[in-house]
Amino acid sequence: MGKKFRKVKKGVVVFFFAALFLLVIYPGENFAQERIPIPRIGITLEEAQEPRDVALSLEILFLLTILSLAPAIIISVTSFTRIAIVFSFMRRALSTQQEPPNQILMGLAIFLTIFIMAPTILEVNNVAIKPYFEEEINATEMFQRGIVPVREFMFRQTREKDIALFLNLGNIERPRNQSDVPTYVIIPAFIISELTTAFKIGILLFIPFIVIDLIVASTLMSMGIIFLPPIMISLPFKIILFILIDGWHLLTFQIVNSFR
């Protein structure tokens, strides 16, 4: 049996190297015909021949600039700021360090932002983006129409005192209505309002877990156990409490409801 096995093994090795030799030395016409061409991507810089070429180049540079600033724009004018900060407070209140991971929390924050902003996004698409691609309006009109639903969303979430702050800082006359408030005023006022609201929610989240920490620390001190960190004992109780009240369901409901 041992000799037969060695003969079979030797035959398999010889066949493998023979097939490899044929593939390398003589690939054949079938292999050449089945080669998939790989595209070559290149960027060339040439002198513009017409004014239209210059305008097109400027449009491309403008679009690339907008794409590079897209993350900052999304964070600034949507509900992402409040959601991300509340999730960060929640993790600190639970004292779970890096659990859940940042990728999970930020992914959930992004999809919650899409869910909350869906009516605004659909309205922007209907009044601005779709008419632009159908060549009914130009780019300037698209921006003017598309910013209106976003401004309405920010106005609903912004405190009047924050708007008044930036109006005073910019020496801008008192506006008669919302349409008179410049967009560059409403955006920083909206961000400040979102930070304030997120911190208020964070304080409310900390209260029940601080009570658990105080109870555990007082119990350990009364028992004379001063070398054991209270966080090691309170952490399981915090997680149990969070699970019993269905914390993620309740937290998500309150976050979404805070924008209505």
In short:
The protein has 260 residues and is mainly α. The protein has helices at residues 2-25, 28-33, 51-77, 80-94, 102-133, 139-157, 160-169, 183-222, 230-244, 247-257. The chain is built from ten helices and no strands.
Write up what this structure looks like.
Helix 6 packs parallel to helix 8 and helix 8 crosses helix 9. It is built from 10 helices and no strands. The chain has a domain of 178 residues. The N terminus is likely disordered. It is 77% helix and 0% strand. The protein is an all-alpha fold and 260 residues long.
Low-confidence stretches: 1-5, 20-26, 29-33
Beta-strand proportion:
under 5%
| Whole-number mean pLDDT | 75
Number of strands: 0
Instruction: Choose one word for the global shape.
Output: elongated
Structural class: mainly alpha
- Give the biggest beta sheet: none
Helix content: over 70%
